[in-house]
Amino acid sequence: MSHQIKGVGKLDTAYDGSNLKIGIVHARWNSTVIDALIKGAIEKLKSFGVKESNIVVSSVPGSYELPFGTKVLSESKEGPFDALISIGVLIKGETMHFEYISESVSHALMKLQFDLNKPVIFGLLTCLTEEQALARAGVVEGSHNHGEDWGAAAVEMAIKHNANKN
Ligand code: RBF
Question: Which region is the signal sequence (predicted)?
Fold first, then answer.
């Protein structure tokens, strides 16, 4: 018996991403996981027809820098973007850093999309162990790469938002 409960589910429309420009901002901490997530996101974007030349990737030191780094890319000459994806991997350590960073970054990314008035996709893994992170980036054999979901979410939200503007 195989039930799928988690995940974005089936799309109700075959979205055409060929005219979209997408910005990806990623942290550099935990780079093995980050690299796999970025790859998954880009592959999914391309599967919707997003052109490689319309995908701009930029990095920030750590996840704490994601909200501001995403705002900076969004407002840069590289844009305008139809959607942005912020990718980071937080792994719990012995101190309270994890709690403070995950909480503040989540809130700031949620707020950012309303400030920018464009979709900001939440690509932040908040894991208790390195194994959990690897198993959410398709690195562990047979595991799902959540970066793919973020690519699909960016296309869907960009198209829904653009439809409202016209
Ligand atoms: N950044 C991450 O993206 N993932 C982490 O797991 C992570 N852990 C951190 C743990 C500690 C103790 C510190 C001081 C920073 C950590 N950072 C992490 C970096 C953080 O997001 C940010 O780049 C720095 O605090 C500089 O603002």
Answer: none
* pTM: predicted TM-score of the whole model, two decimal places: 0.95
* Start-end of H helices in the chain: 31-47, 66-74, 97-116, 130-134, 146-165
- Does 57 contact ligand 1 (Cβ within 6 A)? no
Q: Whole-angstrom Cα distance, residue 98 to residue 29?
A: 13
Tokens representing 43?
A: 């592959």
Select from 25, 66, 101 the residue to mutate for testing ligand 1; criterion: most ligand atoms less than 8 Å from CB: 101
Closest CA to 92 of 48, 39, 129: 129
> Which domains does the chain carry?
27-161 (3.40.50.960)
The Cα–Cα gap between 95 and 73 comes to: 31
